[in-house]
């Protein structure tokens, strides 16, 4: 165990221990190494910190040279939310694709291989899986990050994911407790509210978390959502009724509770990150995640001092802070004892295999069947109807089928179209006309993402299909809208492997 700086008192060490900050750059800054020596026990990594597996391994080695039991956390869900492959797209389909296949052994294998790759780079805590039941199809932040809208399906795949990930020596952090699926607001921007009864919550939202706890999840992440049936006053992250009364006492969970990012507007915009962090620890949280947007020493010192000040002012019991710090150290001991990851037992192409199985392929009425579809042999025009990116996904992660079609059919031409300004229908019609003009005589492949949530996108497809009924449609979000197009391919996610699987169907190129 690394020896901590002798000048750091116990209270200050405990306050540093419960923080999970981020930082900028691909090497650890001096301030971060200094705080690790003073008691900081966790570090959060984001896409900005990762250039390659080799660089990531060197970074985690640098961190462990300062503190050998440091928890290195990452938000690597696979699918749309990837940090390991933020610039290329993920080698693993996300939860919704795995739920579409509904093979729990496959989910276990995918999670194990993803965990093995994380562990090989020195990452030992993954802020995944999302156990949210996607019960509101309008949900702007969960969607394909959920295994699906069926409670029991979500529960069994959450458990399989937890056991698969942890069998590779990486702690799972099941999120977003008590369930973020029945929301139409993104907590990155505002405070969502779920107005259902406690009975509905118990039967629907809580079932996957009960399954995760039974599977031994080492961590649970709280949601920044208001659930009046459980606590009418405070969001889950700050609610003692929810974190201690429900999660600890009623569900019997005794592992680490991590907050979602405290800089998200649902907390920062109402309570501020300092006050929010104090309230979260007092409510029963053990670790404060901060650093998606705030990633500097000043933020760490502000939160440290806020916690120390709250204890000294009698606002936060010292034993509660000590208990939280002890849970962080306990998880660090578990992670340190997990050892090196074993060689892959499922093959490194398990992600592509899963993405292929997740496809749902249909043909428009009167235009034959998928079995009679003649694959393209000439380079098409790919029209990507692009919505505003989910913050959890980020703008920098590529999506779609264009790159894969260019690889399989050189000469493929692409264009991206968005809502732009003006009324939704007009924006969609304009996008559709622009795509038709750009396509010329080429066959069109229209790529959409959550068509049901974007009226302009539906209008753009109307225009495309009215003029060119032979258009192929690829839906890379949640396939709620009715299938249409000469061929409709639902991938259940926008990971790179999902695009590859769709491109194989479009071109008829056999899987390799």
What's the topology here?
Elements: H1 10-17, E1 19-21, H2 30-38, E2 42-45, H3 53-66, E3 71-74, H4 95-101, H5 104-120, E4 125-126, H6 151-166, E5 171-177, H7 198-214, E6 219-222, H8 240-250, E7 256-258, H9 265-268, H10 273-283, E8 288-290, H11 297-312, H12 318-337, H13 350-358, E9 360-362, E10 381-385, H14 402-408, E11 413-417, H15 424-439, E12 444-448, H16 455-467, E13 472-475, E14 487-490, H17 496-507
Parallel strand pairs: 1-8, 2-3, 3-4, 4-5, 5-6, 6-7, 10-11, 10-12, 12-13, 13-14
Antiparallel strand pairs: 9-14
Helix pairs in contact: 1-11, 1-12, 4-13, 5-6, 6-7, 10-11, 13-17, 14-17, 15-16
What topology, given as strand order, has the largest sheet? Answer: 2-3-4-5-6-7
Beta-strand percentage? 5-15%
* Unreliable stretches covering 5 or more consecutive residues: 1-6
Q: How many beta-strand segments?
A: 14
Query: Helix/strand-derived class?
Result: alpha/beta
Mean residue pLDDT? 91
> What does the overall shape look like?
globular
Give a description of the structure:
40% of the residues lie in helices and 11% in strands. The protein has 512 residues and is α/β, with parallel strands linked by helices. A 6-stranded parallel sheet has the order 2-3-4-5-6-7. The longest helix is centred in the middle third of the chain and has 20 residues. The chain is globular, with a radius of gyration of 23 Å.
What's the short story on this structure?
Helix content is 40%, strand content 11%. It is α/β, with parallel strands linked by helices and 512 residues long.
């Amino acid at each position: 165990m690394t020896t901590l700086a002798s000048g750091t008192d116990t209270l200050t060490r405990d306050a540093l221990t419960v923080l999970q900050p981020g930082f900028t750059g691909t090497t650890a800054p001096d301030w971060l190494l200094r705080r690790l020596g003073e008691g900081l026990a966790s570090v959060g990594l984001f896409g900005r910190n990762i250039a390659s597996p080799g660089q990531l391994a060197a970074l985690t080695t640098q961190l462990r040279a300062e503190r050998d039991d440091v928890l290195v956390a990452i938000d690597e869900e696979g699918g749309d939310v990837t940090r390991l492959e933020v610039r290329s797209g993920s080698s693993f389909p996300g939860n919704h694709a795995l739920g579409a296949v509904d093979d729990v052994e496959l989910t276990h294998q995918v999670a194990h291989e993803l965990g093995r790759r994380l562990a090989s780079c020195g990452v030992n805590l993954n802020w995944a899986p999302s156990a949210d039941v996607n019960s509101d199809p309008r949900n702007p932040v969960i969607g394909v990050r959920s295994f699906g809208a069926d409670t029991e399906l979500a529960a069994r795949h959450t458990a399989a994911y937890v056991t698969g990930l942890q069998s590779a020596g990486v702690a799972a952090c099941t999120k977003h407790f008590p369930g973020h699926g029945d929301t139409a607001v993104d907590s990155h921007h505002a405070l969502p509210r779920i107005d259902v009864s406690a009975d509905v919550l118990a039967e629907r939202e809580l079932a996957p978390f009960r399954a995760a706890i039974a599977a031994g999840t080492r961590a649970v992440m709280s949601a920044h959502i208001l659930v009046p049936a459980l606590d009418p006053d405070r969001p889950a992250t700050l609610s003692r009724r929810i974190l201690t009364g429900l999660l600890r006492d009623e569900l019997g969970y005794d592992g680490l509770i991590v907050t979602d990012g405290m800089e998200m507007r649902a907390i920062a915009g109402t309570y501020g990150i300092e006050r929010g962090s104090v309230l979260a620890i007092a409510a029963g949280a053990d670790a404060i995640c901060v650093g998606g947007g705030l990633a500097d020493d000043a933020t760490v010192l502000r939160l440290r001092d806020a916690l120390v000040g709250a204890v000294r002012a009698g606002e936060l019991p010292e034993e509660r802070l000590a208990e939280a710090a002890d849970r962080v150290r306990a998880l660090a001991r578990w992670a340190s004892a997990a050892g090196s990851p074993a060689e892959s037992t499922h093959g490194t192409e398990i992600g592509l295999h899963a993405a292929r199985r997740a496809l749902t392929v249909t043909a428009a009425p009167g235009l034959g069947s998928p079995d009679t579809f003649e694959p393209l042999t000439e380079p098409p025009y790919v029209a990507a109807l692009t919505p505003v990116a989910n913050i959890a996904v980020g703008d920098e992660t590529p999506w779609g089928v264009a790159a894969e079609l260019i690889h399989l059919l050189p000469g493929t031409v692409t264009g991206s179209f968005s809502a732009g300004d003006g009324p939704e229908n007009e924006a969609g019609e304009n996008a559709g006309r622009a795509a038709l003009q750009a396509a010329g005589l080429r066959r069109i492949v229209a790529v959409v993402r959550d068509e049901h949530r974007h009226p302009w996108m539906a209008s753009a497809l109307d225009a495309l299909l009215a003029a060119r009924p032979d258009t192929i449609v690829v839906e890379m979000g949640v396939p709620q809208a009715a299938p249409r197009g000469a061929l409709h391919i639902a991938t259940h996610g926008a990971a790179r492997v999902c695009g590859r699987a769709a491109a194989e169907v479009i071109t008829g190129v056999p899987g390799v």
